[in-house]
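Q: Structure for this?
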Amino acid sequence: MACTAVLPHIVLQDATAPAAASYRAVFKVGHGCDGAPTTRIAVAIPEGFSGAQPMPKPGWTLSTRMGKLAQPMESHGKTLTEGVQEITWTANGPDSYLPSAFYDEFVLRGTTPKTPGALWFKVTQTCTTGVNAWVEQPAQGVSTRGLKSPAAVLEVLPVPVTPATPAAPAGGHIH
Ligand SMILES: [Cu+2]
């Protein structure tokens, strides 16, 4: 794919997040498929990113696909064996298509894994003509340099140790 757009590919707004924390994933879509407008965005939720919830988008229909988790998760005192594995936004019609010259954002949230490391979100971008599969990842590290159609990467970082201040509960708030 020839990528001449100012905003390259599909990337996450925030490329890093602490481990075991709530994370708002903003996927920035900077162009269509060789000039064709985007009609659908499907995001595969990587293993370890739990409790994924999409944000509705006017003009687009949401769907989620559930699947078995490789590792059961604890949530609110219950053991979960299934989780959201894919989230899809589909344009309701031509009025909602995202023209290639325009820019838009698709948002979901979830909780990062306890273990630091790279999380790769594979994104399938469908257009009126053509499909871009953003699925490539490097053999190691988080640099997507040189990859033609990289997946969107989130680097999960160790939680900094701050013994002086009591930590707020994950995803919580302070009164
Ligand atoms: Cu691009």
